[in-house]
Specification:
By secondary structure, the protein is an alpha/beta fold. It contains twelve helices and nine strands. The chain has two domains: about 190 residues, Rossmann fold (3-Layer(aba) Sandwich); about 80 residues, Helicase, Ruva Protein, domain 3, CATH 1.10.8.100. The radius of gyration is 22 Å and the shape is elongated. It comes from Methanobacterium formicicum (strain DSM 3637 / PP1).
Length: about 280
């Protein structure tokens, strides 16, 4: 039913979907129902949806919540979405036209989205700056697996560290390619992401993570030395940087980056930040 409805709407409005823009519309009724079920919505929820498209998720979200804030960038698709909402008499959806990575989000307490794949990373990190109950989000399977990866695993990454430190992240279920129109080249997965109450990541921590994971198979001390420019824009010579790193916990600086857990990386970040502040005071 959903597949037929989607095809008819696109044909009616003469819209050809663009894979490059992440326009892969969910057409599987069973998967849609599972997403809505996992969202556990009630009539007091304000739901944020990013990449609303023609309203596949938007309509059932509006039915079960107080309000939906729906972001969509494609002007043609926005017109279709607004027309559908008007025809169905749905008045509790606020359609936000524009790039969700560059716009402020109004109040929301839950997020439910089939994210455009090319903005998965910036949107995920942006969401960490907001307070909300939890998010039910669809990603590329590979990206979702990196989100839940643990130290020592091959797909453990900077993303994994940030998720482990700032959220409780659970991979709920996989989604096959044929659940979409047009079918993407890769499989997908739905993630439940719940922010932790006291996130400890600041910009310095994020920069330290970025520096470390540019050389994930090297010892962390060497990785920091080679990518210190990611952490500080101070014009420090290599000897000074090495001296700072030598003052860090040697058990941590001798460990391979991909084996460090989020708390160990947090320790490195905090120690290095203190050393940098001391250096600034001494040489400022």
């Amino acid at each position: 039913m959903l597949a037929q409805e989607t095809s008819q709407l696109l044909k009616k409005h003469q819209i050809r979907l663009d894979r490059r823009k992440g326009q892969n519309y969910l057409t599987n009724d069973h998967i849609l129902a599972k997403i809505i079920e996992n969202a556990q919505l009630n009539d007091s929820d304000v739901v944020l949806e990013i990449g609303a498209g023609i309203g596949t998720l938007t309509l059932p979200l509006a039915e079960k919540s107080s309000k939906v804030v729906a972001f969509e960038q494609d002007k043609r698709i926005v017109r279709v979405l607004r027309e559908r909402l008007h025809e169905l008499g749905i008045s509790n959806v606020e359609v936000m036209e524009g790039d969700a990575t560059k716009m402020e989000f109004p109040y929301f307490n839950k997020v439910v989205s089939n994210l455009p794949y090319q903005i998965s990373s910036p949107i995920t990190f942006k969401l960490l700056n907001y307070n909300f109950d939890y998010a039910i989000l669809m990603y590329q399977l590979e990206f979702a697996q990196r989100m839940v990866a643990q130290p020592g695993e091959s797909n453990y990454s900077r993303l994994s560290v940030m998720m482990n430190l700032c959220t409780h992240t659970e991979l709920l279920f996989n989604v096959p390619k044929n659940a979409f129109l047009p079918p993407p080249r890769i499989s997908s997965a739905v993630i439940k992401l719940t922010p932790k109450k006291n996130p400890q990541a600041d910009k310095f921590f994020a920069n330290t993570c970025r520096a470390l994971f540019q050389h994930k198979k090297k010892k962390s001390g060497k990785a920091l030395l080679q990518s210190f420019h990611e952490i500080s824009d101070l014009n420090l010579d290599r000897t000074t940087i090495r001296d700072l790193i030598l003052k860090l916990d040697p058990e941590l600086t001798e460990e391979r980056v991909f084996k460090l857990n989020e708390k160990e990386i947090l320790t490195i970040s905090r120690e290095l930040k203190e050393l940098m502040e001391g250096y600034d005071e001494k040489n400022g």
